[in-house]
Structures are given as C-alpha cells and as structure tokens.
Amino acid sequence: MVTSHLAALKIYHAEQAEIAKNVYVQSRAPSDDATDWSLVLRAARKQITAALRASMFLIDVPAALVESGEHMLVFRHITAPPISQDQFSLVCPGWRKATERPHGSRIKLDEAQFIAAAFEERRSRPLTPWVDAERRPLKREVRRLLWTIAPLIASQQIQTIQRTRAASAQERAITTMLANKGWMREPSSLLDTRAALPARHFMHKTRYATATSSPQEVDIALGLNSTVVLAMECKVSNDQTNSVKRVNDVLKKSNAWKTHWGSFVKTAALLQGVIAPKDVARLIDDGVEVFWSHDLSSLEEFIDTHS
C-alpha cells in the first residue's frame, strides 16, 4: 500500500514538474532576459575594474586580496583557462571559497601571497601582457580584458540573480498567504528548542539548530499542530542540472533536522522552474513534502489541514 502510494505520488509530481517547466519557458520574455544581461554585464565590468585597481592592475594581487577576498572571482577568470572555485581550491589548498562571496572577508597577507602565487602560475599572458613587461596597461589592453572576461562572469551570475529573484517572489507569496490567514509573524531567531514556534506563527529567514553541524537556515518556518514545525525551503532551478544542486541542498538540511529533531520538524520544498522528476522523487523518498509555485492551493490546503 505504501509503495503504491509513493509510486502514485511520484507520477503526480512528475506531471507537475512538466507543468512547472512549461510555465518557466513561457515566462522567459526575451526582452526581460536582455535587460537582465545588460545589467549583469555592466556589474561584471565594475567588478573587474575594482579588482584591477585594487591590485594595481595585477602588479600587487596580494594587496587586493587583503582588501577583499571577493576580488578572487575576477582573478579566477583571468587564468588560462578560467578556473572554477572547486578546481582552484584543489591547486591552492589554502584558499577558502567562502572568502569570495560578495563583500567577502579580508584575507591575511601570508595567505594572500600564497593564493597570488597560484594565480600567477595560471595567469593568462596574452590577456595581461603589461604584467610581464612591467609597465602600466594600455587602455586597449584593459578594454580587451574587460570585454573578454566580463561575459564569462556575467553568464554565471545572471542565472543566480534570476533564481534569487524568483525565490524571493516565492517567499513573498507564502508570507502574504499566511498573513491573510491571520498567522502571526515572529522576529527571526535561532530555533533551538522543541515547540519554539507556536501553532499559526511563522518566521521568515531564520535558522534551525542541528546536533551535527552549524544551524541551518530555513526560508520560512511555520508552526503547525502538535508542536511540529514545517521548515519550508523555496527552490528555483533554471535547468535539470541545476535542480540536482537545489534538491541536494534541501536533502542536506532535511537530514540534519531529522537527525536532531526527529518528527518534530517536517521539511517541505516549494519548487519552481525546471526540476528533474528524478530529483523530485529523491525528495519524496526522503519524506519531504513537495509543493509547486504554480499550485499554491495545494500548499494552502496542507497548511489548513495541519494547523
């Protein structure tokens, strides 16, 4: 009976995944994509310019990294070939990916020198001829570098920006729905005790304690009946490859919460975009409640039933 129920559930959600993909495709207006691309490309050029200036046009890369680890995003794209975070961390074990985040933390001078040495070994000589010539770059050389690597950086960032924007819209839809139902919004705080969130109360962008790792952020936490908290994750994917990462993130959190809290925390995922049916099946097998942005009525019915 359980097996047949799961099979039927997977068939249903495979159908919903197809609907979600069609909704995503239809929502991709070429004019909106072009506008996003223009904005992201401009931002990438600003990032490159900032990194060049901070490093005295690559003459003093350690100084730039001491100022901000965020500059490493640019430096990785000036290597030949451009190198991913994971690959660079292999060739430069002392480098931490987290330092590259926006407004990244400063890097200590000795670490910065080690990282800069790894960069220098892989620096694209044709793109940066002034460094070996020990002179200031010509305007045309800077322009060439900008127009060469800006699209590489922008092509990665545009998908993240579009996903983040869609996920924010998901979160607004849920919080608005809860407010309209009379739910009370609580200030975000660490949830580290059982029944920390009363029934019909919710928190937006809060953290849930785990026993095995640092607290895991949850997009929306909802207090249900019987002191159960629904940990809702809002996930948007641009393609089926990306859906693996999004689902892995949900499963990682779900397992951490399940290990620490057992049945007192129920994980849910609100999905949107291109999600591979096999990835949805992984969520179902793990006991995650699955909902879709194009069918919020199902989520609303679930909430009404359990609160």
From TrEMBL:
UniProt keyword terms in alphabetical order: Endonuclease, Hydrolase, Nuclease
Superkingdom of the organism of origin: Bacteria
GO terms for biological process, alphabetical: DNA restriction-modification system
GO MF entries: DNA binding; type II site-specific deoxyribonuclease activity
Name under which the protein is recorded: XamI family restriction endonuclease
Organism encoding this protein: Massilia polaris
